[in-house]
Amino acid sequence: MGAVEPQVVVTDAPSPVTDGFHLVIDALKLNGIDTIFGLPGIPITDLTRKAQAAGLRVISFRHEQNAGNAAAIAGFMTQKPGICLTVSAPGFLNGLTALANATTNCFPMILISGSSEREIVDLQQGDYEEMDQLAIAKPLAKAAFRVLHAEDIGVGVARAIRAAVSGRPGGVYLDLPAKLFAQSMDAEAGRKSLIKVVDPAPRQIPAEDAVQRALELLKSAKRPLILLGKGAAYAQADADIRALIERTGIPYLPMSMAKGLLPDTHEQSAAAARSFVLPEADVVMLVGARLNWLLSQGKGKTWGGKDAKAWGAQKFIQIDISPQEMDSNVRIEAPLVGDIGSCVSALLTAIKAAGTHWAKPPAEWLSAIAERKGKNLAKMAETLARDPAPMNFHSALNVVRDIIKANPEAILVNEGANALDFTRSIVDMYRPRKRLDVGTWGIMGIGMGFAVAAAVVSGQPVIAIEGDSAFGFSGMEVETICRYNLPVCVVIFNNNGVYGGTDVNPTGGPDVAPTVFVKGARYDKLMEAFGGIGVHVTKPAELRQAMEAAIRSGKPTLINAVIDETAGTESGRITSLNPTAKKK
Fold first, then answer.
1. What is the CATH number of the domain that holds 322?
2. Of 87, 149, 384, 554, which has the fewest Cβ atoms less than 10 A away?
3. One domain, residues 358 and 246
4. CB-based contacts of 129: which residues, under 8 Å, 6+ apart?
């Protein structure tokens, strides 16, 4: 028999194809992104549907700014860029505030927005929501990219991820014109076009001589101080930072979002003696903190004691990943450039090598701090023990203080003016990255976005302490909290207005003063309207009972805590920045 000829099968079946929608989704999933925060609408509604179908968690908000804030703080908590997805033009602009805030605070975030077609935008022919979004985003972001072709989606997402987390983290904008999503290409070619980012935030090892210079300066100090910023919390080098502080015996002062890196009750914490240690320290080591307005730019009375001209006598060591940050306000005697984890590790290694040659700070310095801490803590305890009627910030926050102590894994979100300042000084934190607040700009409106993201990312209970004014910026997101049944307890300190509810219209006209809200507002009813638990309280015992019940239940809860409307101070603790503020 002759050889059998091979059978040739002819088929017209097309090769599998993919499109822009799926390439964006696949690129995110390839890089470990599992959650998107956003708001659906033209042209990204189908992207949200397809992302959910592909297994991504899509958390939909009522306003893009809140979604952006959620993405930003998710980035801070996870060291992966949080993703915010918005529609074009107005939606993009709503998200832009959060993007700018993320860049300022070094939170890794990617704002992805649909946009109008380039051909029409560039000729200004009046497309739907026409806007050159890339040009607008560039000055406010660490980086900004636009993808025009489906085969470049993988590159665009990879570049955005690397830009967001490498070096000093920040906000990145990724512009996706509407017609990109419908573009199709061969599925296998599409798969090969995607990029899994390798080592997106590579370590930056400090120079050996820089490490020795910093240690020599610390050794020479008579009154050393370590100042921890939120960059130290972001670094997640918790064990090494604690080891460095305890091994050296140097007192430390945590900035607001660095609270909990070591428990606030740690014996080396100088937080209760802040106004004493800043001007008196002779060598200050900054770890992930910048000498910005929150630290009086390293100048003036904050650093010079009673004589403002005395500033400049102190010497600074600064650990920062950006060499350009050095000398930005004052001379940095020992710049230590590198990522915080590597820098702290290198310092520890050198200290261990020195062995018994490393001496702890002089006893006079430590005892002076302990004395002032003791006096201030006793004074605070006396204030917290009072039970005025109506409640004030101190009596209400004494309850919150106890709740956090009993539930140290709970995440505390905090914003406002007085509500922020009093909470920061009264409520102790015990774990790292458990306090999330307004950050460098001190802005209002982060509350509900941060609370949603904190609950989604951690799965832990979230307690949001809000001034009634601050809550108004994002209050509609209580519906989002209820929709996703998140374990968030919102506590509104209701004093009827901005700072308080006591201002009057000087003309005697019918309009209330600009700082006054509706008297006796029942914010708790807002939560009830969406199926959550609303509680109205007027006494500390009632507040304690409501908060304990909220933690136990894990149900969305809003507590309207009525406090004395005269308790607040205009502008909180930054009254000096408001030249017309009334002094109380």
1. 3.40.50.1220
2. 149
3. yes
4. 42, 87, 88, 89, 90, 116
How confident is residue 576, by pLDDT bands cut at 50, 70 and 90?
low
| Separation of alpha carbons 192 and 182, rounded Å | 19
**DSSP state letters, 263-328:** -TT-TTB-GGGHHHHHHH-SEEEEES---SGGGGGG-SHHHHTT-GGGTT-SEEEEEES-GGGTTS
Torsion of CA 574, 576, 579, 581, to 10 degrees: 50
Does 290 lie in the same domain as 257?
Answer: yes
The model's pLDDT over 90-118, given as tens digits with 9 standing for 90+, comes to 999 999 999 999 999 999 999 999 998 88
Q: In DSSP terms, which residues pair with 306 in a beta bridge?
A: none
- Show which of 328, 345, 370 is a domain's final residue: 370
Distance CA 262, CA 511 (A): 49
The Cα 73–Cα 106 span in angstroms is 10
Tell the burial category of 288 from Cβ atoms under 10 Å away from its Cβ (0-12, 13-18, 19+).
buried
Closest to 266 in 3D by CA, of 133, 432, 462: 432
In 3-state terms, what secondary structure has residue 146? strand
Give how far Cα 213 sits from Cα of 180, 216, 286, 334, 343, Å: 53, 5, 15, 6, 13
Whether 362 and 440 share a structural domain: no
Q: Evaluate if residue 480 carries a pLDDT over 90.
A: yes
Return the SS3 of 552: helix
In this structure, the number of other CB atoms found within 10 A of the CB of residue 219 comes to 15
Instruction: Name the helix (H) or strand (E) containing 489.
Output: strand 488-494
Cα atoms in the 13 Å half-sphere on the side-chain side of 549: 14
Q: Is residue 569's pLDDT more than 70?
A: yes
Look at residues 304, 337, 370 and tell me which one is the last residue of a structural domain: 370
Q: Which of 494, 502, 489, 491 is nearest to 551 (CA)?
A: 489
Task: Specify whether the CB–CB gap between 280 and 301 falls below 8 A.
Answer: no
What's at 151, amino acid-wise?
Answer: E
- Whole-angstrom Cα distance, residue 242 to residue 575? 34
CA 412, 413, 419, 425 dihedral sign is: positive
Query: What's the rounded mean pLDDT across residues 366-380?
Result: 96
d(CA 143, CA 147): 14
* Contact (Cβ atoms closer than 8 angstroms) between residue 476 and residue 527: no
CA–CA dist 480, 468 (Å, integer): 19
Q: What are phi and psi of 20, to 5 degrees?
A: -60, -40
pLDDT tens digits for 446-469? Answer: 999 999 999 999 999 999 999 999
Mean predicted lDDT score pLDDT of the chain: 93
38-85 per-position pLDDT tens digit: 999 999 999 999 999 999 999 999 999 999 999 999 999 999 999 999
Closest CA to 270 of 253, 258, 256: 253
Distance CA 35, CA 81 (A): 10
Q: Which residue has the tokens 């090892």?
A: 205
Asked whether residue 145 is domain-assigned, the answer is yes
Residue 37 sits in the same domain as residue 171: yes
Give residue 72's domain range: 17-193
Q: Give the Cβ contact number of residue 525 at 10 Å.
A: 12
- Does the pLDDT of residue 308 top 60, yes or no? no
In this predicted structure, the answer to whether residue 388 has a pLDDT above a threshold of 50 is yes
